[in-house]
Specification:
The structure is a single chain. By secondary structure, the chain is α+β, with helices and mostly antiparallel strands. It folds into two domains: 201 residues, Ribosomal Protein S5, domain 2 (2-Layer Sandwich); 167 residues, 2-Layer Sandwich (Alpha-Beta Plaits), CATH 3.30.70. It is 41% helix and 22% strand. The chain is built from eleven helices and twelve strands. Strands 1, 2, 3, 4, 5, 6, 7 and 12 form an eight-stranded mixed beta sheet that branches. Strands 9-10-8-11 form a four-stranded antiparallel beta sheet. A hairpin with a 7-residue loop joins strand 9 and strand 10. The two termini are 25 Å apart. The structure holds adenosine-5'-diphosphate (ADP) and magnesium ion. The site of adenosine-5'-diphosphate has 19 residues, from strand 5 and helix 3.
Length: 384
């Protein structure tokens, strides 16, 4: 039987490892993005939701400036002395939780008196479901409570992003952390990354479920394609003389095509058209117009595949085979270069779609994806 990862599990393992009871257990969810990809760092629009898979952080207090961190399924108990060095060199997986400790200490001016941290998560890593935001937000909301720092949920989200950008070195946006902090049951989070307005959008999924098809092709956002896409967007901003790609309206696309090289233009076209698709998707979910959602997802996936070039053959196959088997909408989700695709599927058809996708992968000679449904759930919170 699969292990149940929950707050009690994290508390038990904390006690076994460190020999005392934790001060508390906090958790934060991963997220699936319904639509709006690579728009967050371009001051654009996104529509993610927090999923019912979480990272739990059991935390105990120390007084000697030492932070110890262990994580279920990850190697070692990493120990760092914040008392000696205020900015110790952090590497590997521990850069995520320890980076948050460092950034929150900088932001709040609170000295790190020391913590023992035990993490346990059922968010798959590198699957496009943002295990990184889950771990960051779980630790950040915990420290905000423990230090009584009074940061808002937006501030905590931005602290998580800052840790990922400056300590881990992954130039990611802040969509994931906002979804993890603001998630609500049965709702998506509509976030305007320019104004930072955030609003829960009731999804009314009813008899539909969100199926995740994790290709298990691992990406890393600290290196490679993600960073190069960001660079392309930055260079387009320079050439176009705007402050962000959000300032480029559809009627400026002709001008963009003349000024930019062919590849950079396609990157820009994706971002500009994706923002419009997000707005239309909010309206379509409001109207429960699943046909319109299907069209928007299809256009979004095609744009990521052909213009932004972040899909993979396995992600394309997941989308195509799930649609063929009866999904009403499907697209890759997350940063791309591997990870997961999502599909909206009527509950009764989920088993049939799952086996059709498995079959299609086997026939194509790929390892079948890991498939499971996710439910829009509550954001970061204290559990114990
Ligand atoms: P994603 O956010 O899509 O899952 P990322 O590459 O952004 O993928 O982040 C995954 C990395 O975050 C992992 O390789 C690991 O270093 C770190 N990480 C995520 N969750 C945990 C965890 N529960 N324990 C330790 N490290 C984690
Ligand atoms: Mg991530």
């Amino acid at each position: 039987m699969a292990l149940t990862i929950d707050a009690a599990f994290a508390a038990r393992n904390f006690e076994e490892l460190y020999g005392y009871s934790p001060e508390g257990v906090w958790s934060a969810p991963g997220r699936a993005n319904l639509i709006g990809e690579h728009t967050d760092y371009n001051a654009g629009l996104v529509l993610p939701f927090a999923i019912n898979r979480r990272t739990f952080a059991a935390i105990g207090l120390r007084t000697d400036g030492t932070v110890r961190v262990a994580s279920e399924g990850f190697h070692g108990v990493i120990e760092v002395d914040f008392g000696v060095q205020s900015t110790p060199a952090l590497e590997g997986w521990s850069a995520y939780p320890l980076g948050v400790v460092q950034v929150l200490s900088e932001l709040t001016g609170h000295a790190v008196e020391g913590f023992d941290i035990y993490l346990a998560s059922d968010v798959p890593t590198g699957a496009g479901l943002s295990s990184s935001a889950a771990i960051e937000c779980a630790v950040a909301i915990a420290l905000n409570d423990i230090w009584d720092a009074g940061l808002s949920r937006s501030d905590i989200a931005l602290a998580g992003q800052r840790a990922e950008n400056t300590v881990v070195g992954a130039p990611t946006g802040f969509m994931d952390q906002f979804a993890s902090m603001f998630g609500e049951p049965d709702s998506a989070i509509f976030l305007d990354c320019r104004s930072m307005d955030v609003r829960a959008v009731p999804l009314g999924l009813g008899d539909f479920e969100v199926l995740v098809m994790d290709t298990q092709e691992k990406h890393s956002h600290a290196t490679g394609g993600y960073a190069s896409r960001r660079k392309a967007c930055d260079s387009a901003v320079d050439v176009m003389g705007v402050s962000t790609l959000r300032d480029i309206t559809t009627d400026m696309l002709d001008e963009a095509q003349q000024k930019l090289d062919e590849e950079t233009f396609r990157r820009v076209k994706h971002v500009v058209t994706e923002n419009i698709r997000v707005e239309n998707a909010v309206a379509a979910f409001g109207a429960r117009d699943f046909e319109a959602i299907g069209e928007l997802f299809a256009a979004s996936h095609a744009s990521m595949r052909d213009d932004f070039e972040i899909s993979t053959p396995a992600l394309d196959l997941a989308v195509e085979s799930s649609l063929e088997a009866g999904a009403v909408a499907a697209r890759m989700t997350g940063g791309g270069f591997g990870g997961a695709a999502i599909a909206l599927v009527a509950s009764a058809q989920v088993p049939e779609v799952m086996s059709a996708v498995t079959e299609a992968f086997t026939a194509a000679g790929y390892q079948p994806p890991l498939q499971f449904t996710v439910v829009p759930s509550q954001g970061a919170r204290r559990d114990i």
